[in-house]
Amino acid sequence: MESEKIMTKGDWSPAESTDLPEFGQQLEHNRPWTARFVDSFKRDPNAHATPKGTVGADGRVFDVESAAANTASSPLQRHLKGRHLQMIAIGGSIGTGLFVGSGSALANGGPASLVIAFGLIGIMLYCTVHALGEMAVLFPVAGSFSAYSTRFLDPAWGFAMGWNYAMQWLVVLPLEIVAATLTIDFWNDSINPDAFVAIFLVLIVVINLFGVKGYGEAEFVFSIIKVIAVVGFIILGIILNCGGGPDGGYIGAKYWYDPGAFNNGFKGLCSVFVTAAFAFAGTELVGLAAAETANPRKSLPSAVKQVFWRISLFYMVALTVVGLLVPYTDPRLLSAESSVDAKASPFVIAITNAGITGLPSVMNAVILIAVLSVGNSSIYGSSRTLAALADQGQAPKILGYIDRKGRPIVSIGIASALGFLAFFAGSEKRGDAFNWMLALSGLSSIFTWGSICLAHIRFRAGWKKQGHSLDELAYRSQPGLVGSWIGFIFNCLVLVAQFWTGAWPIGYGEMSGAGMAEAFFSVYLATPVVLAFYFPYKFWYRTPFVRSHNMDLHTGIRDLNIQELIAEEKAERASWPAWKKAYKFFC
């Protein structure tokens, strides 16, 4: 009987080999597209099943180590590129807060208060985003700032911040869809709004079903349009102010003298803070997107630096021009029937006052695009945050389901389902319901930004305590630790200012007790909601505050040879000419 031949190393040839896929590798076969489409919704083979965590004798111990490991190993796909991040940073949060909300802010505070309040919030946000950028470059993990609160502050506070942020975006989707239908009323108010609710909801959901690349490409286009609109208005506004409009006449700064630069004194200034915070909301999405970026160490620093230009150019210059062209006594500023009423936009009022026809309709189209952009971001922000909470054991595990296309498909489904609330747009009682939904997201951004700054302060303390130097960081916040303290303190001051203006609003002497209570909670509802998340979780799990010597400063670092990469980049920067060094510092 012939013995079985055993293949040796010398008998092997490449022609006889079979390319076997590695674990988790996804190979496309010649299969029908329908089968591939169905398979794309199956769980990613590299996805971990969220563990229950370490359970102590009382069954209530939260496992910080597992939470950090799960967010670091999330199978979210890394398809975002530098151009996506830069446009998200530059134009991602340019929306109705700037185009329409600035009108009521101008009426309540005057042009000087408008510029001062937006400038102060801008400084705070500049410090905040740089702090977030430093942590996100080093730890590009799922959940970003909510995960940093869990890792560097307190798991209970991370739980509260994660759900606070998720709820902020969950309620924003139906609000923005309704807002989009209201922009249509500018052209035609005879069509049933439910028809446009269905169209806009399907459009936003389909964009997000294309995964992070769909979100990135859509935001890239939306942001370009918004940036062009703002730059165009600034140029037009300067021309109109100098007397170049159809009606002619030099305007200059006459509205700063009559009716004046301020309205309602210091309280008027404080009342503008919440509008400014709403207008800047969404800037932190740059940090959330780091986990799905191909090379965050290269792309994120540049995107973070773009925030300076957005604040200084697109907000400060545009609002200064608005304050020069529109007096705060103009009754149309307070005539808005909704948050997207173009007729109450100071941009539209300035154009109308100049006698220019046609452009108000163009501005309304820009407002519609801005609303759809925010709706698109709402599904992205809420779904990624919910999935990260599930990864950390702070939400139902099913929300952490990520399919083979890197989509947190269950969380996307939950966020999309809440969009059906927008079908109440035709209801006579929609006003009260949606006002309270909006109140839920009123101060959410302030809590998020304050937590980012505090997490950065604690991270730096742990970094120093464990023997690391700042030279080991791939990216350093430009305002540094001082900037984070400025950001944190100013966030706290904004909360105090909003408590004052909420408890004793402008004109409170003529309000009833019920009216004052409603006015207070309409701007301060987020605070009791955050506390309602924090304290029960804190008492149930008995989570300790994270000490600097116990911080996990290793899990989630994507570039393991970071020191070599930093040394190479320093050598490269040394050879740059002076102009390029200056450009890279700001951009």
From TrEMBL:
Residues 1-26 are annotated as: Disordered. The chain crosses the membrane at residues 87-107, 113-142, 163-183, 195-212, 224-246, 266-286, 307-328, 348-374, 409-427, 433-459, 480-500, 520-537. The keyword Cell membrane applies. Gene3D superfamilies: Amino acid/polyamine transporter I. InterPro entries: AA-permease/SLC12A_dom, Amino_acid_permease_CS, Amino_acid_permease_fungi, APC_YAT. The keyword Transmembrane helix applies. One of its GO terms (molecular function) is amino acid transmembrane transporter activity. One of its GO terms (cellular component) is plasma membrane. Residues 84-547 form the Amino acid permease/ SLC12A domain. PANTHER family: AMINO ACID PERMEASE, GENERAL AMINO-ACID PERMEASE GAP1. This is Amino acid permease/ SLC12A domain-containing protein. It comes from Hortaea werneckii. The lineage of its organism: Eukaryota, Fungi, Dikarya, Ascomycota, Pezizomycotina.
